[in-house]
Amino acid sequence: MRHYPAGVTVVTLHPQEKPVGFTATSFASVSADPPLVSFNIAHTSSSIDALHIAESVVIHFLGEHQQHIAQRFARSADERFTDRSLWTRLDTGEPVLYGTPLWLRVVISQLIPVGDHTLVIGLVARVHDETGTELSAAPLLYHNGRYYKPTPLGD
């Protein structure tokens, strides 16, 4: 499936004592009413246990300028939150990344084992949208093992 381009998201959560996060390219909209979204996580992920005890997550839609964030959250789990200048916490406890044009706070409603992954379905509880501001950016894309910035058609 690496030959199908996808938008890049970072999922963050705060299940207990320390923050957890990971890069995900499997985000999908599931339903408009109620507003449900989904993503997948591998059963071998260092974040899977935390996800099973978390009540909610924040899904960050990365802009084309945030490849360094995608790479940080694809690295070793103990390196992801070491730079405190990159994130803060919501009043509900989840980490939120600075400079992300769009993020969703999502309450987890279903965890469904599917093959070697778990499908996570959640209800959107909050939308933070700065796509019409100076933070606005084209989305960061991932295709065939590389990150890309979109090029408008006709250029």
Keyphrases for this structure?
mainly beta; 8% helix; 7-stranded antiparallel beta sheet; Pnp Oxidase, Chain A; 12 strands; single chain; 3-stranded antiparallel beta sheet; 155 residues; globular
Report the order of strands and helices: EEEEEHEHEEEEEE
Give a short account of the largest sheet. 7 strands, antiparallel
* N- to C-terminal distance: 27 Å
Number of strands: 12
Family: Belongs to the non-flavoprotein flavin reductase family.
Pfam families: Flavin_Reduct
Protein name: Flavin reductase family protein
InterPro entries: Flavin_Rdtase-like_dom, NADH-dep_flavin_reductase, Split_barrel_FMN-bd
Secondary structure blueprint with pairings:
Elements: E1 6-7, E2 9-13, E3 20-24, E4 28-31, E5 36-42, H1 48-53, E6 56-61, H2 67-72, E7 87-89, E8 95-97, E9 102-114, E10 117-129, E11 141-143, E12 146-148
Antiparallel strand pairs: 1-11, 2-3, 2-6, 4-5, 5-10, 6-9, 7-8, 9-10, 11-12
Describe the structure.
- It is a single chain.
- This protein is mainly beta.
- The chain has two helices and twelve strands.
- It has helices spanning 48-53, 67-72; strands at residues 6-7, 9-13, 20-24, 28-31, 36-42, 56-61, 87-89, 95-97, 102-114, 117-129, 141-143, 146-148.
- The strands form three sheets. Strands 3-2-6-9-10-5-4 form a seven-stranded antiparallel sheet.
- Strand 2 (9-13) and strand 3 (20-24) form a beta hairpin.
- It is globular.
- Residues 1-149 form the Flavin reductase like domain.
